[in-house]
Amino acid sequence: MTAESFVASPAGQHRAPEGALSVPAPGGLPGGRGPAAGRGPRRRRPDARLSLWFSDGVAVLAGALTLPAAHRDPLVLAVLAAGVLALNRWAGLYDTSLVRGALDDVPAVCGRIAVGWAVVAALSPRSLSPSALIAVVAVHGVTACAGRAVVQGLRRRALRRRPCPALVVGPVATARQVAAALLRRPDCGVRPVGLVADGPDERGDAAGEPGLPVCASALEARRAVVRDGVGAVLVVGAATRVEQAALLRALAASGCALWELDADRGPYGLGGRTGHLAGFPRRPLRQEDGRRPGAGLKRLLDVLLSGALLVLTGPVLLGCALVLRVMDGPGVVFRQERIGRDGRPFTMLKLRTHRPASEHEAATRWSVANQQDMSRFCHFLRRTSLDELLQLWNVFRGDMSLVGPRPERPYFVERFSQAHPGYPARHRMRTGITGLAQINGLRGDTSIEDRARYDNAYIDDWSLWQDVCILLRTAAQFVRPTGS
Fold first, then answer.
1. Ranges of CATH 3.40.50.720 domains, the chain
2. What is the pLDDT of residues 212-230, one digit of tens each?
3. Are the beta carbons of 41 and 229 closer than 8 angstroms?
4. Distance between CA 325 and CA 156 in Å, rounded?
């Protein structure tokens, strides 16, 4: 629900990526899933997820054995086990990308166990005394926490003996700083074995420096993956240039986990972070829209709602198109190239409310020329955002989503990527008709930097419920339109 008449905020001080980075989602640091087979001589570690699932299953059995014999209904206990394990999975308690401490998961694990047994007690045909319920929850909780402590302790010991080889990608000075910090903390489970410089100039400057080897090309980086059994790639600084994107995609495809480390700021500097590594806040460098939990439901919501709205608003669109055809002549549909997820271009559709002087103006002019010459009907379409309704077809096709960062033209994507460090990261998810930035008033002549910050916050904290809330707030704004 945005317009084409924006004013860019002043350029930032730091040079930002020149395009949207597109790499698959990381699979977690080794200690969970091992690297892809055939990449090197390193043996495959057992999947720690299975160990955590097994320990939680044993804990359910221990709790069940504490029950009086009259209450041991196999069906009820099977439902309890499935429910507790599902709640644990939903909370990320089987995420093996972090080696957690023995006490870290105690509140989350015990809370879900208590909820599960409370439901069993409420649904059980035979009443369970409070003392018996407390005993069952206590035994189940202690067994689950003890089992998890054993699994995580064994993982930490294995990683200390055989840490995960890693490449550090970024400006050489920053990459060396991060690598040195990791080497000073062998207990973090990651051992840097090489650097990948962010740009050809830095590769040349670092060639004669002592320390870890610097990969001078993508081929050398891939050879290091095979030679050293690299399982993790740590991206620091501004290492999100377009020329690095292909390399990072190749490394991720070979089984490496890709993580972004913030070497300059504290943990508050990374929204949606998933812990730290040797004190550096970290988060997955990419999280594919299609791989997020619930992303299938997001796409289903897009298809169902966009299809229904296309049917419901079809007469309105047809009426608007007829009026535009009578008033302004042929060509009522406006087609324009926009940049979508992963930097892929697509053709966005709108009802035409103005006619640019040329294709160049349409692609490179930020503000609409001669807005005062637009007819009153075109002003009405823009003020009510009715000209945007054709984008429902883009949503139905899969070019866009109902909720997501607003798409922009290639010319401005390049400009804003250079001026604002967070702008390229907006393309980690499908672009949308509306978004968190739009419902917070960032439409029209507002700051691009603020929009990028809101868009990235939306992606980092995405949930299906958040999409529903944004759609409801957008609908409320649609009732009292302020202009697109």
1. 162-285
2. 888 877 788 888 888 888 8
3. yes
4. 69
